[in-house]
Amino acid sequence: MIGSAIGVVDILAIVAVSGGLLLAGVGGRRYLRLRAVARRAVETTGTINGKRIQLVRGAGGSQSYVPVVDYEYRTPTERRDGTTVYPGNSQFAKQFGTESAAETAVADYEPGDQTTVYYDPDDPAHSFLIADPQTATAVSLVVIGGAALVGGMLLVV
To answer: Can you tell me the distance from the alpha carbon of 52 to that of 57, in angstroms, rounded to the nearest whole number?
Structure first.
């Protein structure tokens, strides 16, 4: 029988390279999407209706806090409601480690106040109050994926 068996190191290398490519791809895609949404966002005026901090429980008992601001705004064709502070797929785009940090993020928003609202003209239901995309998570995925990729390639060498 001629040939070689796949060893544990080879399997680890394959898993590391595959996982690294996947993480880097997901992170890169998320980063580019957030930047594109922020770039094409259209400004309008909105009215703050309320604000709150939402507790999010994660795996292993971890907790994070999401600032939520209820507001209404107008596009050229309709009136809409929004809750998202930062650009992203949902109001959970930016989570804070402490309740006080989340409260600080929305401290300037008071019911009845007028504010600038940004919305995506391609998807007017996607609105947010702070046009700075929070890309730290996406960049972290790219970095971790890149490290796994390099580590897996080093295992092969």
So the answer is: 16
In eight-state DSSP terms, residue 19 is: H
CB 116 within 8 A of CB 91: no
Instruction: Provide the residue-wise pLDDT of the chain in tens; the chain has 157 residues.
Output: 444 667 777 777 777 777 777 777 777 777 777 677 777 888 899 999 999 999 988 778 888 898 999 999 999 999 999 998 887 665 556 778 889 988 998 999 999 999 999 998 888 888 888 876 554 454 555 667 667 667 776 766 6
**């703050």: which residue's tokens?**
48
Sheet architecture: strand order including 63-74: 79-82, 63-74, 42-57, 114-120, 123-128
Q: What is the pTM of this model?
A: 0.65
Residue type, 109: Y
Contact 137, 31 (CB under 8 A): no
Closest CA to 86 of 30, 141, 26: 30
